[in-house]
């Protein structure tokens, strides 16, 4: 089966297409791509999954980065800077 791995940063991204055996899981795909690491959070088509989630042909695995700022705090700062 074919799957796609995506990891992104501001203004750039990296994409790898893999051919895996049927029954492979997310951890297998990360290992084959060389992207495995401690605490790697992933999503399949935007739905958060763990490393043991089974993959299907055509799945897109997205590596999730930790948030740099709490979204609530960022919104409060933007509102305060607008003078509200």
General description of the model:
The protein is built from 2 helices and 5 strands; from the N terminus they run ββαβββα. The protein has 84 residues and is of the alpha+beta class. The chain has a single domain (2-81), classed as Ubiquitin-like (UB roll) (Roll), CATH 3.10.20.30. The longest helix has 11 residues, at 71-81.
The oligomerization state is single chain
Please give the count of helices. 2
Structural class: alpha+beta
Strand content: 25-35%
Helix content: 10-25%
CATH class: Alpha Beta
Number of separate strands: 5
Question: What is the succession of H and E elements?
Answer: EEHEEEH
Task: Provide the CATH superfamily.
Answer: Beta-grasp domain
Report the uncertain regions: none
What is the count of distinct domains? Answer: 1
| Average pLDDT | 90
Shape: elongated
Short description:
By secondary structure, the protein is an alpha+beta fold. The chain contains 2 helices and 5 strands. The model has no long low-confidence stretch (mean pLDDT 90).
Chart the SSEs and their pairings.
Elements: E1 2-9, E2 12-19, H1 26-33, E3 41-44, E4 47-49, E5 60-64, H2 71-81
Parallel strand pairs: 1-5
Antiparallel strand pairs: 1-2, 3-4, 3-5
